[in-house]
Amino acid sequence: MKPINFNDSNCIYAENQKPYLPLPAFKHNDDWQCVSACWYLNLIERIVILFTGRIYTTLPTFGKPLTPQKLSIINPVNNVPRES
Q1: Alpha-carbon gap, residue 13 to 72, rounded angstroms
Q2: In sequence order, what are the residues at sequence separation of 6 or more whose Cβ sits closer than 8 angstroms to the Cβ of residue 14?
Q3: What's the mean pLDDT in 20-34?
Q4: First CA to last CA across the chain, in angstroms?
Q5: Do residues 3 and 22 touch, judged by C-beta distance below 8 A?
Q6: What pLDDT score was predicted for residue 52?
Q7: pTM of this structure
Q8: Nearby residues of 59 by Cβ (< 8 Å), 6 or more positions away
Q9: What percentage of the chain reaches a pLDDT higher than 70?
Q10: How much is the pLDDT for 83?
Q11: Of 84, 77, 68, 65, which Cα lies nearest the Cα of 38?
Q12: Which residues in 14-36 are b (16+ Cβ under 10 Å) and which e?
């Protein structure tokens, strides 16, 4: 999986921070102060998910409390399953 740019992205996190991948994202202007990103899965990853039904996530906390998270197939910016 790799983070990808999408139509609604309005910032890029870690653009010049090795060893991190640049993360195109959308900063929401709401009370939750959310950030949404889009990830691309290659064919093999799609097949593995099809058969296992599992996705793992790793979130560095740097010793701080874990923030809430949500994975989705729906674009949270405009509520559509994928870009047109």
Answers
A1: 20
A2: 20, 21, 22, 23
A3: 85
A4: 20
A5: yes
A6: 96
A7: 0.77
A8: 66, 67, 69
A9: 90
A10: 47
A11: 77
A12: eeeeeeeeebbbbeeeeeeeeeb
